[in-house]
Amino acid sequence: MRRRTFMGAAGAAAVTLALSGAALAQEAVKIGLILPMTGPFASTGRQIEAAAKLYMQQHGDTVAGKKIQLILKDDTGVADVTKRLAQELIVNDKIAVMAGFGLTPLALAPAPLATQAKVPQVVMAAATATITEASPYIVRTSFTLPQATVPMAEWAAKNDIKKVVTLVSDYGPGIDAEKAFTSAFTAKGGQVENLRVPLANPDFSPFLQKVADAKPDALFVFVPSGIGAQFMKQFVERGLDKSGIKLIGPGDVTDDDILNGMGDVALGAITTHHYSAAHDSPENKSFVEAFKKANNGMRPNFMAVGGYDGMHLIYEGLKKTNGQGGQALIDAMKGMSWTSPRGPVSIDPQTRDIVQNIYVRKVERKDGELYNVEFATIPNVKDPVKAAKSN
């Protein structure tokens, strides 16, 4: 009898321990970070992972009394893999948030899962304007291509550029950039010819020959982060660096992560973008210093700031909801504002896109290194595509 009583007590204790263990497990808030860590877009994954880890190192791994657990998955830049990983993270790991998403197809693939599971999806990189319309649970801390591109068209029109050839990667963001630039530039009386280059294994040479033959005042270029060096190499091989054709575009082509490796050919390139490692603010100086220190001297780029601000948005949202995810967390994120290393930012409560300054920059040599040096600011830019829809 005593033995049976003891066994009953021991069993009850085991159940209690199991339940308390489950309760402790539920106290953890898991963030699934899905990024291309291998393949042609690995620089994007490397930058965002480093920024997310830096944010946690600086701000601790506990929010609202709950432990933050980061689970990193490599989608290799393939959308089907992104979707499968997102499903596994939602079902098996019970994540509260999924984040990262290095390219547009990778951000769109898990959008239906975000909606079904009511799991907020924080897009830290992908830049096609329509992404946030794919699910009410998507919020973005990167940028949209039209947001960076319309200011470039306006700058070009004001600076005696009359004829432009656009050369863009043939997928969502490239098409966004082409359309936004063409529409804004022709509205100012400019002439545009459009060229599109394949996203996979791009060979720019035949397209650059067409540019040389067209003799425009400027070549507008959009290629994804990490591909700029390959473009610049072929730009020089075709002799376009000595042709008098100005190189302009959104800031992806003069990405901070690879800018020094491009050499003098990049000097003088004019771009419009939301972040430069040379941005002159105390917040950015401390961010760049800490990032370099934590990553063997690697310079942060615009992908890194998207990751860093994405973690800030998640942390501050969880503080507001006392650690609750789902709809409450998305609602908490809408309208949030803060001072980022890139400058003042906010989340548009209607579109869940980031509102931010866009800077006009020129590649210059500074302290022996190449930087995108800002010389003009367009403040508080919303995504122009959605702004036009709401008018």
UniProtKB/TrEMBL annotation:
Family, similarity comment: Belongs to the leucine-binding protein family.
Signal peptide annotation: 1-25
Residue span, Leucine-binding protein domain: 29-367
Organism: Microvirga splendida
Protein name, per record: ABC transporter substrate-binding protein
SUPFAM superfamilies cross-referenced by the UniProt entry: Periplasmic binding protein-like I
Transmembrane segments: none
Stored InterPro entries: BCAA_transport, Leu-bd, Leu_Ile_Val-bd, Peripla_BP_I, TAT_signal
Keywords (A to Z) from UniProt: Amino-acid transport, Signal, Transport
Pfam family, one: Peripla_BP_6
Highest taxon listed in the record's lineage: Bacteria
PROSITE patterns found in the cross-reference section: TAT
